[in-house]
Amino acid sequence: QVQLVESGGGLVQPGGSLRLSCAASGSIFNIYFMAWYRQAPGAQRELVASITSGGITNYADSVQGRFTISRDNAKNTAYLQMNMLKPGDTAVYYCQALQLRDGRHFVYWGQGTPVTVSS
Protein backbone atom coordinates (compact mmCIF):
# COMPACT_ATOMS: atom_id res chain seq x y z
CA GLN A 1 0.00 0.00 0.00
CA VAL A 2 1.04 3.55 -0.73
CA GLN A 3 -0.16 6.55 1.24
CA LEU A 4 -0.15 10.01 -0.34
CA VAL A 5 -0.42 13.19 1.70
CA GLU A 6 -0.83 16.55 -0.02
CA SER A 7 -0.03 19.89 1.53
CA GLY A 8 0.52 23.49 0.52
CA GLY A 9 -2.95 24.58 -0.50
CA GLY A 10 -4.57 27.75 0.70
CA LEU A 11 -5.94 31.14 -0.26
CA VAL A 12 -3.95 33.26 -2.68
CA GLN A 13 -4.66 36.40 -4.68
CA PRO A 14 -4.81 36.35 -8.47
CA GLY A 15 -1.31 36.47 -9.89
CA GLY A 16 0.15 34.82 -6.82
CA SER A 17 1.98 31.53 -6.38
CA LEU A 18 1.65 28.35 -4.36
CA ARG A 19 3.67 25.16 -4.17
CA LEU A 20 1.86 21.92 -3.49
CA SER A 21 3.64 18.87 -2.10
CA CYS A 22 2.67 15.21 -2.26
CA ALA A 23 4.58 12.95 0.10
CA ALA A 24 4.45 9.22 -0.56
CA SER A 25 4.98 6.63 2.16
CA GLY A 26 4.49 2.90 2.66
CA SER A 27 5.49 0.41 -0.04
CA ILE A 28 6.75 3.06 -2.42
CA PHE A 29 8.84 0.95 -4.81
CA ASN A 30 8.08 0.98 -8.54
CA ILE A 31 6.02 4.15 -8.50
CA TYR A 32 6.44 4.95 -12.16
CA PHE A 33 3.99 7.81 -12.61
CA MET A 34 2.75 10.67 -10.45
CA ALA A 35 0.22 13.31 -11.32
CA TRP A 36 -1.81 16.21 -10.01
CA TYR A 37 -5.52 16.43 -10.67
CA ARG A 38 -8.00 19.06 -9.63
CA GLN A 39 -11.71 19.22 -9.13
CA ALA A 40 -13.63 22.46 -9.01
CA PRO A 41 -17.12 22.63 -7.45
CA GLY A 42 -19.66 21.07 -9.77
CA ALA A 43 -16.99 19.96 -12.25
CA GLN A 44 -15.31 16.71 -13.10
CA ARG A 45 -11.83 15.89 -11.87
CA GLU A 46 -9.27 16.86 -14.48
CA LEU A 47 -5.62 16.12 -15.05
CA VAL A 48 -3.38 19.11 -14.40
CA ALA A 49 0.14 17.75 -14.76
CA SER A 50 2.02 14.47 -14.70
CA ILE A 51 5.56 13.20 -14.42
CA THR A 52 7.07 9.79 -15.10
CA SER A 53 9.85 8.15 -13.15
CA GLY A 54 12.10 9.16 -16.01
CA GLY A 55 11.17 12.81 -15.65
CA ILE A 56 8.89 13.19 -18.65
CA THR A 57 6.24 15.81 -17.90
CA ASN A 58 2.88 16.66 -19.37
CA TYR A 59 0.54 19.58 -18.71
CA ALA A 60 -3.02 20.55 -19.36
CA ASP A 61 -3.27 23.38 -21.86
CA SER A 62 -4.88 25.59 -19.23
CA VAL A 63 -1.78 25.51 -16.99
CA GLN A 64 1.01 25.19 -19.55
CA GLY A 65 3.66 27.80 -18.87
CA ARG A 66 2.31 28.62 -15.40
CA PHE A 67 2.59 25.33 -13.49
CA THR A 68 5.61 23.09 -13.07
CA ILE A 69 5.54 19.53 -11.80
CA SER A 70 8.66 17.99 -10.30
CA ARG A 71 9.64 14.97 -8.31
CA ASP A 72 12.29 14.36 -5.64
CA ASN A 73 12.85 10.62 -5.61
CA ALA A 74 15.11 10.81 -2.55
CA LYS A 75 12.28 12.39 -0.55
CA ASN A 76 9.53 10.38 -2.26
CA THR A 77 7.75 13.64 -2.89
CA ALA A 78 6.16 15.27 -5.90
CA TYR A 79 5.60 19.00 -6.19
CA LEU A 80 3.40 21.32 -8.18
CA GLN A 81 4.69 24.86 -8.46
CA MET A 82 1.80 27.09 -9.45
CA ASN A 83 2.51 30.62 -10.66
CA MET A 84 0.33 33.37 -12.10
CA LEU A 85 -2.70 31.82 -10.46
CA LYS A 86 -6.13 32.71 -11.75
CA PRO A 87 -9.57 32.43 -10.14
CA GLY A 88 -10.25 29.57 -12.56
CA ASP A 89 -7.53 27.57 -10.82
CA THR A 90 -9.67 27.36 -7.70
CA ALA A 91 -10.24 23.68 -6.93
CA VAL A 92 -9.30 20.82 -4.67
CA TYR A 93 -5.99 19.44 -5.90
CA TYR A 94 -5.34 15.72 -5.66
CA CYS A 95 -2.13 13.75 -6.02
CA GLN A 96 -2.14 10.44 -7.86
CA ALA A 97 0.51 7.72 -7.99
CA LEU A 98 0.69 4.65 -10.20
CA GLN A 99 2.62 1.63 -9.01
CA LEU A 100 3.62 -1.60 -10.70
CA ARG A 101 3.61 -4.41 -8.17
CA ASP A 102 3.49 -8.17 -8.72
CA GLY A 103 2.74 -7.55 -12.38
CA ARG A 104 -0.30 -5.42 -11.65
CA HIS A 105 -0.91 -1.69 -11.78
CA PHE A 106 -2.22 0.05 -8.67
CA VAL A 107 -3.65 3.55 -8.45
CA TYR A 108 -3.41 5.63 -5.29
CA TRP A 109 -4.92 8.99 -4.43
CA GLY A 110 -4.28 11.54 -1.74
CA GLN A 111 -7.01 13.22 0.27
CA GLY A 112 -6.73 16.52 -1.60
CA THR A 113 -5.68 20.02 -0.67
CA PRO A 114 -7.88 23.03 -1.46
CA VAL A 115 -6.64 26.00 -3.46
CA THR A 116 -8.66 29.19 -3.60
CA VAL A 117 -7.63 32.05 -5.86
CA SER A 118 -9.52 35.18 -4.94
CA SER A 119 -8.98 38.83 -4.19
What is the strand and helix layout of this fold?
Layout: E1 2-7, E2 10-12, E3 18-26, E4 31-39, E5 46-52, E6 57-59, E7 67-72, E8 77-82, E9 91-101, E10 104-109, E11 113-117
Parallel strand pairs: 2-11
Antiparallel strand pairs: 1-3, 3-8, 4-5, 4-9, 5-6, 7-8, 9-10, 9-11
Description:
This protein is an all-beta fold and 119 residues long. It is 0% helix and 60% strand. It contains no helices and 11 strands. The strands form 2 sheets. Strands 2, 4, 5, 6, 9, 10 and 11 form a 7-stranded mixed beta sheet that branches. β9 and β10 form a beta hairpin. The model has no long low-confidence stretch (mean pLDDT 95).
Question: Which properties best describe this structure?
Answer:
single chain; 119 residues; seven-stranded mixed β-sheet; elongated
Content of β-strand: over 45%
Please, what is the average pLDDT?
95
Determine Rg (CA atoms, Å). Answer: 14 Å
Question: What's the N-to-C terminus distance?
Answer: 40 Å
What class would the helix/strand composition place it in? Answer: mainly beta
Number of strands: 11
Instruction: Please summarize the sheet with the most strands.
Output: 7 strands, mixed
Task: State the helical fraction.
Answer: under 10%
How many helices does DSSP assign? 0
Tell the overall outline. elongated
Low-pLDDT stretches are none
Instruction: Output the helix-strand order.
Output: EEEEEEEEEEE
